[in-house]
Amino acid sequence: MAFVVTRVDLDRNRYRSAIWLAEADGSAPPYQFSAGEHGDSEPAWSPDGRRLAFTSRRSDQPGHTTLHVAPVGVPGEILTLCERPEAIEEPAWSRDGRRIAFASRERTSRYEAQDERARPPRRIDRLLSRLDGEGWIIDRPRSVFVMPADGSAAPRIVAGGPFEHGGPAWSPDGTRLAVTAARHKDWDLQPVDDVFLVDPEGGSEADTDGPAEPRPLTAQRLSHRSPAFAPDGARIATLAEDSRIIPSHAQVVVLDAATGEQRVLTAALDRQCAPMPGARAPIWDGEALLFSVEDRGGVHVYRVAADGSGEPERLIGGTRAVTGFDLAGGTLAFVATTPAQLPELFVRDGDGTERQLTNLGATFHAAHPALPAEHFTVPSPGGDGEVDAWLIRPAGISDGDRVPVLLAIHGGPMAQYACSWFDEFQLWAAAGYAVVYCNPHGSSGFTESWVRSIRPPEAPKAPGTGWGGIDADDVLAVLDAALARDERLDSDRVGVLGGSYGGYLTTWLIGHSDRFAAACSERAVNNLESEEWSSDSAGFFRHEFGVSHLDAPDAYRRMSPISYVGDIDTPVLILHSENDLRCPVEQADQLFVALRLLGKPVEYWRFPEEGHNLSRTGSPRHRMQRAEIILDWFGRHLGGRRPEKVSALPE
Fold it and tell me: Model confidence over 528-549: pLDDT tens digits?
């Protein structure tokens, strides 16, 4: 089996990733297969298991990606199939091993000029024109390509712009590709991805007419992603969600490949079947399908009959999160993590026996022992369920100690804190803080009604409390319960922090409460009204809230933390990335300017050349500096341990 191992090169301020191989039976130690100096990723086995396709950043041109095929266990050399100025993603082999499909952005003629100042202006005629981490995409549509697996011909576009395509999946006979895209009229106003069937032989880069038109298989009722053909070619499994009301759980759906008739298989679970991260196409296992599920902090693997004849059954459970899985020859391989363990590779044999194949985190854990996360539940003030919560205590505290507390709030809001390794929590606990976190109303991992409960009262369908309602009540109830749980936690030294929606709720809480000694609001939404026109997902809140900012501006303003900025007396640390397109930096500017004009205590750090995911995928140096800024801030205000050195930061 093939998997990816990533490491940090702090000296060169970059990440390096390599392809590793492991024997499923554990008969030999796992070993590094590719050099891993340039960012090797997305391994995909050929059907006969003798070749491995993977992508790499080993080009001399910045930003270029290469696609390679390497022999495994047989003589031969690594072939470089193609090089593109964009990312190459989702490589997929045809069943006969002769062709590879992949997704990549296709640049328009506007990019022929190397100097941006010599390029013509962009014509923008739809909402989805930019994407965080990608930049402008309106003139770089995501297309699907096909090329020979021996590199004998250049890639050909088989499904192209101006639409965004993804998820190429081959039919068993190789005559069709299933892809997903929104190609209907006004698709940016009603963003619903359908399944299309594509002729893999159609079109050529030299053809003036372009590829043949994809044939729609579905018709905008459910929004689909991640298709997978059944072995008989007559059915296609996807992950799909109800496009009529957002948020909705993604479900496992089986389509008739001829008629598009749909059967939903997992509605009875009432759980999210597209975990973030780790969502992948359902896997066919005979007449059943394997898929993953978020469930109250866990991420597990389930199996369900493809004809809907039985209820889904759990195959892999436990207090852990499965972040990736695959099936071959009756062996289920998966990567799993816990709050105290970095991700490792496991296999589950046909008899249900589990074996751990890697122990790559052993050296790190030996040097930095993990602190356990104690799970507890708190009745929601809403009276409709229990909030899952966790507490990590710092090491070495005694009965007479008084420990500062950090209350962490996740982003989303349709996401969950999983039973997984979270480096920041361990870092804060090592610095002497007790860390409290939870999955309040609006989080995934629970029922669909729980997820929708924070839609505003103005929503004509599934109205709720709005953001800053029952979700805020839940978070405060969890904090109260944690403080009552352990008298060593100091209620006078509590800080609150979060990113994205977590930053939103942080700013909201300090505008409605004076119980926090300090706060860190990161990449936050502070003004929902301006977010609706400035974000890369401009216009999306009208789906999530059920009303638009044009029809119900008062609802947006009522739910915006900036409306209550005059009530903020808590010292605030603002962190934001200058290239953040999801929550543009103007959101941070609004908060800072208002607080500064009001003479409130505020400190603002802007990270250049970083996007919304700075804390996860930003440059290593910026991530380290961010961590030190947070520890220094709370150390000054809560009395926790400050870093010995705040590296490369101005006074």
Answer: 999 999 999 999 999 999 999 9
Phi-psi region of 553 (alpha: psi -120 to 50; beta: other; left: phi over 0): alpha
Contact 445, 296 (CB under 8 A): yes
**Domain for residue 566, yes or no?**
yes
Please give the Cα distance from 198 to 177 (Å, whole number).
5
Triad 557, 563, 568: Cα angle to 5°? 155
- Percent of the chain's residues with pLDDT above 70: 98
C-beta neighbour count of 227 within 10 angstroms? 27
The verdict on residue 156 lying in a domain is no
- The number of residues making up the chain comes to 651
Domain with 577 in it: what CATH number?
Answer: 3.40.50.1820
pLDDT at 226 over 90: yes
Whose CA is closest to 198, among 175, 221, 182, 220?
175
Over residues 167-178, the mean pLDDT reads 98
Confidence of residue 205 (pLDDT cuts 50, 70, 90): very low
**Nearest alpha-carbon partner for 427 in 388, 398, 475, 395:** 395
Q: Is residue 178 part of a domain?
A: no
Q: Are strands 14-21 and 2-9 parallel, antiparallel or unpaired?
A: antiparallel
In the chain, how many domains are there?
Answer: 1
DSSP 506-560: HHHHHTT----SEEEEES----HHHHHHHSTTTTTHHHHHSS-TTT-HHHHHHT-
| CB 273 within 8 Å of CB 259 | no
Whether residue 204 has pLDDT greater than 50: no
Q: Sheet harboring 2-9: ordered strands across?
A: 2-9, 14-21, 31-32
Of the candidates 572, 583, 592, the one whose C-alpha atom is nearest the C-alpha of residue 613 is 583
The reply to whether 38 falls in a domain is no
Average per-residue pLDDT in the chain? 95
For 453, the domain range is 371-638
CA distances from 550 to 246, 467, 546, 563 (A): 18, 18, 12, 18
Note the pLDDT tens digit of each residue in 266-308.
999 999 999 988 899 999 999 999 999 999 999 999 999 999 9
Q: Answer yes or no: are the C-beta atoms of 527 and 439 closer than 8 Å.
A: no
3-state SS, residue 53: strand
Burial 394-428 (b: 16+ CB within 10 A, else e): beeeeeeeebbbbbbbbbbbbbbbbbbbbebbbbb
- What is the rounded average pLDDT of the residues 345-350? 93
Count, in order, helices (H) and strands (E) of the chain: 11, 37
647 pLDDT exceeds 90? no
Q: Find where tokens 């896997």 sit.
A: 283
- Closest C-alpha among 561, 649, 567, 566 to residue 605: 649
